[in-house]
Design brief:
Order of helices and strands of chain B: HHHHHH
Largest sheet of chain B: none
Largest sheet of chain A: 2 strands, antiparallel
Order of helices and strands of chain A: HHHHHHHEEHHHHHHHHHHHHH
Largest interface: A-B, 76 and 89 residues
Number of strands of chain B: 0
Radius of gyration of chain B: 23 Å
Distance between the termini of chain A: 58 Å
Strand content of chain A: under 5%
Structural class of chain A: mainly alpha
Strand content of chain B: under 5%
Number of helices of chain A: 20
Strand order of the largest sheet of chain A: 1-2
Oligomer: heterodimer
Number of helices of chain B: 6
Distance between the termini of chain B: 45 Å
Helix content of chain B: 55-70%
């Protein structure tokens, strides 16, 4: 069956009324959490995980996709109107967007962000539609050694790229790997690091760690350094939305942003900060108007497009290789595992309704979000009226419910408190958080690949680099690890 | 909280603040190394090789433990050489502000208390208490309103999530069974 036919089948799934409803719920929820501080798409999906046990996987993932895309739309609104980016990916938008709003062009900034997100989201979804099956096809030939090399590459890049210090990046990663080995060993059935506790036999759940790091850690951190001065919201009443001139200046940045965001989103470690930053820098370099720094529309159009394209980009390695490249992707992978599904090439052949329904829902979600966001922006910003004490208290209560609901275990609550405290310390001392989650979910997978690869070769470690793919990928991993300090040293010598 | 409360220092959490003398947070590296040592110690009792696969259940534990141990030492060396740490930016938080220890401890209490009271008293009551504590940590003194809001959120969430198939335990916790039995229900 051709890709097009499969996609049409996907639309058949996504357009079922019940799935449309879940897409709408996801989009609304996503926009809301994108606007609210303290809660992002990864945390939201983690909290929704237990609820989705009763849902069909198609419906659940369609809702998650709505949350993922919706958060990107919502984040731009607060960046532009009150200069507080709700998500890391919206930081660049705030630079020019808020200046535009202050100069009376807020409506135009919101419009270029929303339409740019729509354009980038649609193009990136198109790219996903045609590139993902091709990679999945290729991945059929990957052997355990290749997969092991890919996970090592992912480890190296998240630890090196995320955060400001390589040491701290690797510490985060190794904490994740260390937490990942807790529980019954999958192959030998031996309990590891359970300290004699029954409750630890099943291992430490990603949901618990993610919720603790993001919700509890953030709440503790903000409580300890709370600044209760709310930003001033710029009104956009009576402004012209989007002129012909705005469009003329926006379309090229949209396309360039998409071209930067999609491939970078697919690479491990870059998240949404790097693509948006690159797009902003590029637009600034290309601009001749001298308006940058005072509210240039290109500086909103480019990063917003890059942000949404990157969100689609993370789905490529996730769906085709089962490789998460960001915190959100890690929790999506956990969701797949909850349903007993392993993303990868087999998912495309065994579960076409799920994969293509999900991809089709991205097109639908994008249209929904454009309609939800542009005309209703005045309604959305009302969310910011929720007083902060009650907002953070509510976040903690929902985090607690999410953790308690997993197994009604006090051990989980204890892990939540400990990891939450760790999340606090990591914020104060600037350790990146996503590598913990990547290490936690990819560690056991890496171990499995390593064992299968070595078992096939009777334990000869050369097998790990014996295929062309594994040798190349391992070399890249080593380069990512070794090159930056080497270059630094060379520069210092010169 | 370990060394977050070293004496004579109230304003230089995270380092780099001008007001108080900078104290090097060696405990950070020590903690990482200690975790690594604990993992290594446990790995010692696990088989490193296995009959079928070439590697046993102990190998990854050893790697994780050794990695953390070494990284902790590297971090301590970096700290010794004067590595500075800047708190991360977050919304609603001033990264350069001094730490409000009381607010932090109240918020921490809201996280720790549920470990003890969740099972005996149930989710709604626990949610009510935790909610009120966090509100207090953020400076809200509207006790009654917060207690009521927390109770409503906890109760609504209990009904809603229970309907969706989530197991959240008895409404008033394990205690309720004995209580209701006592009252003759």
């Amino acid at each position: 069956m051709s890709t097009f036919e499969l996609l049409m089948q996907g639309f058949g799934v996504a357009l079922q009324p019940v799935n449309l409803m879940w897409a709408l719920i996801g989009s609304v929820l996503g926009t809301a959490i994108g606007i609210l501080p303290g809660i992002g798409p990864a945390l939201t999906i983690a909290l929704l995980l237990p609820v989705t046990i009763t849902l069909a996987p198609e419906s659940a993932f369609i809702m998650f996709a709505g949350v993922l895309y919706g958060a990107m739309y919502g984040g731009s609104t607060t960046s532009i109107l009150i200069n507080t980016p709700g998500e890391a990916g919206s930081m660049m938008t705030a630079l020019e967007g808020n200046k535009m709003a202050r100069a009376g062009r807020g409506a135009a900034a919101l419009a270029t962000a929303a339409i740019g997100s729509f354009v980038a989201g649609t193009i990136a979804t198109l790219a996903l539609t045609f590139i993902a099956p091709a990679i999945a096809e290729l991945a059929f030939y990957f052997r355990p050694a290749d997969y092991f090399a890919i996970t090592v590459l992912a480890f190296c890049s998240v630890a090196v790229v995320m955060g400001r210090s390589r040491t701290r990046g690797f510490i985060s990663l190794f904490i994740g790997i260390a937490l990942g080995v807790v529980g019954i060993d999958a192959m030998a059935g031996q309990p590891r690091l359970t300290f004699g506790m029954m409750q630890l036999l099943k291992g430490i759940e990603l949901t618990v760690v993610l919720v603790s790091l993001f919700a509890v850690g953030e709440m503790l951190y903000v409580a300890s350094r709370y600044r209760s001065v709310p930003g001033t919201m710029v009104s956009i009443k009576g402004q012209s939305w989007f002129t012909r001139n705005d469009f003329k200046r926006s379309w090229a940045p949209w396309l360039r942003g998409t071209a930067i965001g999609f491939p970078l989103g697919a690479l491990p470690g870059s998240g949404s900060e790097i693509p948006t930053m690159l797009s902003y820098t590029l637009e600034r370099k290309l601009s001749r108007s001298g308006e940058f720094g005072k509210g240039a529309i290109e500086g909103v159009a480019g990063p917003e497009a890059a942000n949404n394209a990157a969100a689609a980009g993370i789905l490529v390695p996730l769906l085709t290789l089962g490789l998460p490249t960001s915190a959100t992707a890690a929790v999506l992978l956990a969701a797949f595992q909850n349903y007993g599904l392993q993303p990868g090439p087999n998912l495309f052949s065994n579960n076409p309704a799920l994969v293509w329904g999900l991809i089709a829902s991205l097109y639908i979600g994008n249209c929904m979000l454009l309609v939800l966001n542009l005309p209703l922006v005045g309604l959305w910003v009302q969310l910011l009226r929720i007083p902060r004490p009650q907002l953070y208290a509510g976040i903690l209560v929902f985090a607690m419910i999410g953790v308690w609901g997993l197994a009604q275990s006090w051990v989980d609550l204890t892990i939540m408190a400990l990891v939450g405290l760790m999340g606090y310390v990591m914020r104060v001392y600037d350790f990146p958080i996503a590598p913990v989650l990547i290490g936690l979910i990819l560690g056991p997978m890496a171990e499995g690949y390593l064992r299968t690869a070595l078992a096939a070769s009777q334990g000869n470690p050369v097998a790990l680099v014996s295929t062309p793919v594994s040798a190349t990928v391992m070399t890249i991993a080593v380069l990512i690890f070794a090159l930056p300090p080497l270059l630094k040293r060379l520069k210092a010598d010169a | 909280m370990p060394a977050l409360s070293t004496e004579g220092q109230t304003t230089n959490e995270g380092g780099g603040r001008k007001a108080a003398p900078y104290r090097r947070p060696y405990w950070l590296g020590a903690l990482v190394s200690a975790m690594g040592a604990l993992w290594l110690y446990n790995a010692y009792f696990l088989p490193q090789g296995a009959r079928y696969a070439a590697i046993g259940p102990g190998l990854f534990v050893t790697i994780a433990g050794a990695g953390l141990l070494i990284l902790g030492i590297i971090l301590m060396v970096q700290i010794h050489r004067g590595e500075r740490f800047e708190p991360q930016d977050a919304e609603d938080a001033a990264a350069d502000a001094p730490m409000d220890r009381n607010a932090f401890l109240i918020a921490l209490l809201a996280v720790v208390l549920p470990i003890i009271i969740m099972r005996p008293f149930g989710l709604p009551i626990t949610a009510m208490i935790a909610f009120t504590l966090v509100c207090r940590a953020f400076g809200s003194r509207a006790w009654v309103v917060n207690l009521i809001t927390g109770a409503i959120i906890g109760a609504l969430a209990w009904f809603l999530f229970s309907r969706l198939g989530l197991q959240l335990g008895p409404f008033f916790g394990q205690r309720s069974n004995t209580l209701f039995a006592f009252l003759g229900f």
